[in-house]
């Protein structure tokens, strides 16, 4: 199986199997970034409409990605941006509870910590399987639980949660806001927010969405946007033109999610490139990408050399595009990383294991190369 988007990436002949850390920027997206740098070299070339057009276009593209209304998409610079907005904007008071998950990625945890100053209780739900399970959530809910926040795919185990089952547990219990961190999933599988049933989804743009670093978005259900007890007054979001000053100053109430965008929303250098990358993914199709990525994951699982143990899930509904493996007693992670590097294969070391995370730019050949470098027999110690 060839990579999707053939000729679309410039990886210097290496097998980049580390999208869980950073997705590669497609060549066409790099051209978009290059064009914006060219404009900045000679600022006469920066059109004034760009300050309105760039956010408008990107919001529309992201809305298509998650099958949402553009008026519910907030443009940010990270996963943390959306979580920080929720932590500060949700009307939580003394004694309310936010449930977080043991072993979740720090970006899912830290944004909620400032709430302790307000007397909000943060409780960690145990996740012995490596991700939040409905039974554990059920047991942890109390009548003061207001928010549950979990990653869709756990960065340190590769395990995926059953989003709909968890949302159902919350719905059965009462008024609970379910916040999904999609950073390790969105771009590697379809993410229709209505089907998922969550109240909010946050994601970075620089992993599975193949955008530049410092990109991210949040989607909030419309009534959740209306409930945010937080306002900001970013001038470019409030005005319709740059050339003339407003005749009066009033915060607009017709902006929807755009009222909460990161400042400098028309990020001339990152957003056009990210928009191009996401548009390319949409052209390929998220179903096609998921099939491709999962076929590569299956190839890793089926071809794992003797002596290696798969520690991430094997089952299709529990696994993700993050594959974790550990060596037996005759090999070490450090040695294997050295062999992989020498073979031109880039993976990550996470939680003491090797993490392999293939995406649409990878091919069967990339996986074959990784598997033969992992085989200790071919590389006696
Ligand atoms: C689950 C998860 N969330 C978030 C992030 C990144 O957070 P941010 O976009 O805020 O830097 C990562 C990895 O870097 C991650 O694995």
Please give a structural write-up:
Helix 2 (50-65) packs parallel to helix 10 and helix 12 (333-342) crosses helix 13 (364-374). The chain is an alpha/beta fold and 381 residues long. The two termini are 32 Å apart. It is built from 13 helices and 13 strands. The longest helix has 18 residues, at 286-303. 34% of the residues lie in helices and 14% in strands. It is globular and about 75 Å long. The strands form three sheets. A seven-stranded mixed sheet has the order 2-8-7-6-5-3-4, sandwiched between helices. Helix 7 (193-196) links the parallel strand 6 and strand 7 (200-204). Pyridoxal-5'-phosphate is lined by residues 78-80, 105, 107, 151, 155, 181, 183-184, 204, 216.
Tally of separate domains = 2
CATH class of the largest domain: Alpha Beta
Structure ligands: pyridoxal-5'-phosphate
Say what the CATH topology of the largest domain is. Aspartate Aminotransferase, domain 2
Q: So, the CATH homologous superfamily of the largest domain?
A: Type I PLP-dependent aspartate aminotransferase-like (Major domain)
Strand order, main sheet: write it out. 2-8-7-6-5-3-4
Report how far apart the termini are: 32 Å
Provide the β-strand percentage band: 5-15%
**Overall 3D shape:** globular
CATH architecture of the largest domain: 3-Layer(aba) Sandwich
- Mean pLDDT across all amino acids: 96
Low-pLDDT runs: none
């Amino acid at each position: 199986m060839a990579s999707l988007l053939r000729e679309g990436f410039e990886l210097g002949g290496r097998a980049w199997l580390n999208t869980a850390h950073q997705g590669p920027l497609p060549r066409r997206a790099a051209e978009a970034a290059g064009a914006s740098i060219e404009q900045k070299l000679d600022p006469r070339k920066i059109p004034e409409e760009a300050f309105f057009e760039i956010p408008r276009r990107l919001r529309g593209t992201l809305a298509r990605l998650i099958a949402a209304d553009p008026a519910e998409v907030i443009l940010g610079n990270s996963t943390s941006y959306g979580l920080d907005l929720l932590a500060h904007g949700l009307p939580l008071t003394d004694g309310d509870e936010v449930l977080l998950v043991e072993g979740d990625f720090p970006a899912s945890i830290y944004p909620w910590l400032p709430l302790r100053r307000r007397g909000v209780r943060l409780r960690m739900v145990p996740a012995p399987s490596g991700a939040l399970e409905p039974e554990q959530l059920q047991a942890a809910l109390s009548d003061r639980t207001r928010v549950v926040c979990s990653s869709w795919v756990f960065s340190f185990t590769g395990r995926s949660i059953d989003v709909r089952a968890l949302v159902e547990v919350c719905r059965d219990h009462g008024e609970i806001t379910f916040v999904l961190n999609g950073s390790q999933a969105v771009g590697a599988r379809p993410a229709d927010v209505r089907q998922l049933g969550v109240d909010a989804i946050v994601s970075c743009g620089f992993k599975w969405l193949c955008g530049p670093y410092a990109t991210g978005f949040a989607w909030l259900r419309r009534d959740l946007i209306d409930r945010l007890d937080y306002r900001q007054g970013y001038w470019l979001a409030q005005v319709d033109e740059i050339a003339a000053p407003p005749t009066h100053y009033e915060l607009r109430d017709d902006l929807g999610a755009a009222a909460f965008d990161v400042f400098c929303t028309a990020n001339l250098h990152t957003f056009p490139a990210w928009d191009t990358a996401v548009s390319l993914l949409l052209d390929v199709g998220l179903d096609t990408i998921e099939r491709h990525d999962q076929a590569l994951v299956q190839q890793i699982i089926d071809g794992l050399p003797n002596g290696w143990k798969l520690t991430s899930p094997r089952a299709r509904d529990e696994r993700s595009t993050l594959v974790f493996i550990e060596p037996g007693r005759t090999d070490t992670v450090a040695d294997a990383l050295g062999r992989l590097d020498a073979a031109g294969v880039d993976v990550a070391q996470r939680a003491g294991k090797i993490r392999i995370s293939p995406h649409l730019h990878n091919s069967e050949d990339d996986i074959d190369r990784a598997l033969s470098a992992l085989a200790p027999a071919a590389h006696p110690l």
